[in-house]
């Protein structure tokens, strides 16, 4: 029997149940992993609330996108992975079909990457969702170049910090946007070349000052909602405004004539990259290199044991964290 987290109804953190279930077995093109650490994501909060782009296929439902551990078994037609290999799981599947919260989990082989021996399970569980989200948009699609300014809102989140570090590692100019000036020093220490705290300063003025009036080549927007009209005013001509989340919970308009200029605004999810093997392979290679070198090592705010998965989700929803929340599995 293996401890597995499922939820039997939609709702708050308290709906998550830790249950003893029979050990799963991998099918064709699947891998069984003995989990050592699990990275938590806002997407999983929205999934259990029924507010995610995917809805549970049925209840009870599994949950989870990220994990790291050791291969326990492989199914038929799996190549390049063997029992005992240290690995990590990347988000390349739907939570309607698979989940990573548990002691033993089955995932598609296409979602498994080798974890170098020098990379801990906690690091391996925390890096992929956030860094692939940024890499897919800014590098794979946008072609980020040295010197490019990138505005990142919700900058203290795991994705925000991973984006700052990625941009910095490639010679870009990460500009962090936060609602509270209390996080200014932390964000600067984590790699932001400039920080705009909207509780005390004007967003447009702050970004224009940081870019010498040129505006940003990219806006990486996790918030969406009516604020896109203001963000449109800081995109440089020919730039791209990526909308990859909706933390505002509000409808997102296309900016009107008062802010329209020569730029693109598009929705984006990391699945554009993770579900296409030819695009995922170079992304995982580049990120692995960055993690090993330390340039892309994730920032961990707090860890919780699996027995406290409800508390871990409560903390994740509090938005108090700076960086990733990770659950450890003993």
Second rung of CATH, namely the architecture of the largest domain? Alpha-Beta Complex
Low-confidence spans: none
Rg, please? 20 Å
Mean pLDDT: 95
Helix content: 25-40%
Shape field:
globular
Beta fraction? 25-35%
Q: What is the CATH homology-level superfamily of the largest domain? A: Medium-chain alcohol dehydrogenases, catalytic domain
Give, in order, the helices and strands: EEEHEEEEHHEHEHEHEHEEHHEHE
Please give the domain count: 2
Oligomer: single chain
| Main beta sheet | 7 strands, mixed
Structural class: alpha/beta
CATH top level class name of the largest domain? Alpha Beta
What count of helical segments does DSSP give? 10
- The number of E-state strands comes to 15
InterPro entries: ADH-like_N, ER, GroES-like_sf, NAD(P)-bd_dom_sf
Keywords: NADP, Oxidoreductase
Domain Enoyl reductase (ER): 11-327
Pfam families: ADH_N, ADH_zinc_N_2
Record keyword descriptors for this entry.
alpha/beta, about 325 residues, Quinone Oxidoreductase, Chain A, domain 1, Rossmann fold, 7-stranded mixed β-sheet, globular, 6-stranded parallel β-sheet
